[in-house]
Design brief:
The chain is mainly beta. A hairpin with a 2-residue loop joins β17 and β18. Helices cover 6% and strands 36% of the residues. It contains three helices and 24 strands. It folds into two domains: 200 residues, no CATH class; 94 residues, no CATH class. The strands form four sheets. The chain has a seven-stranded antiparallel sheet, with helices on one face. Strands 5, 6, 7, 8, 9, 15 and 16 form a seven-stranded antiparallel sheet that branches. Strands 3-24-4-22-23 form a five-stranded antiparallel sheet.
Amino acid sequence: MRPAAAPAPAAPAPVPGPEAAPAPRPAAPAVTHREERIDTPAGPVTTDVVVADLRRDGVRATLLTGATVGDRSDVPAHAARGGALAAVNGDFFDLSRSNAPAGPSVRDGTLLTSAVPPGRRLAPAVPGSEPGDVLAVDAGGTPRIDRVTLAASVTGPDGPLTIRTLNAYAVPVGGIGLFTSDWNGDRNAALCGSDTDRDAPCAPDRIEVVVRDGAVAEVRPPGAGPVPPGDRILAGRDEGAAALRGLAVGDRVTVRSRAVAESGAAPETAVGGSPILRDGAPVPGLDTASRDPRSAAGITGDGRLVLVTTDGRESTSVGTTLSETAEQLRRAGAVDGVNLDGGGSSTMVFGGQVVNRPSEDAYRLVPNALGIVAPS
């Protein structure tokens, strides 16, 4: 009988090596969406929340608009045209007339509109708010609540004249407004009404001056329609009209205009909105009675941007008051925030889909929206 085979030699012990590095944790998404449903004494409330980290590469906020300030689209169309992953409707606007926004708007660092007089802003009253209040984002991606005003003048042979508004649907009583190719509406209508009543009579004295290639090209009654690229149209009412009558065809003039931010940080993007949350607390005196669909935007303590909509006017979601909207922003992590246009305008898009439930049968057409662009 053959002898048993000798046992195989033991395998050498493994040589100790460096510990394997743990697998990297995936980064949190730069832009997220969630839906919240809560029960309140007034009934159920459904809220949609988008949070965007603007510090991440390729993530930025942008103002979504049409070709001119009064051109309207629904929010899904604005988002698709602007390549935005997420978007919410923007500022209150001159519904059914010029359709231009009520407050300042800045797109790609360019001021498109300045604010109308306080009494002509079609928005809920918010204690302490001013027409120039905005949610702004600078070129470095830092969002803030700011106040943007217009510094503008026209200088002719007799010296400078102050320009009060830019592409605004209401020129203040006694003032001069500037209109550029970003405007495609009725300039005469902007000289009608008072500083508090859109239906007040037109100013008895109205005029417009066309500036082309640095000189007065026309002096005429105010008109409507497109402003040719490169032209500047100055429209005056009352004392403003009288001052413009000092200019004559052929006079050399210089028109200057710029946005002035109270913070000193030049905005790359800005949308008009009334502050309702400051330093982590709702602004005192906010309305606690009127419930409506709402849209709002806020900023977290670490600089992320928060977009919020609340459904309303239906049994499944009764809407929120302004005070409750401020609380929603705070619950979403914001420390500062503004109220945007609400009601039938409230629409949120995420990933190409409308994620909230707008209160009207068709998506309302709006002049601007606040969008978030991010890598796919």
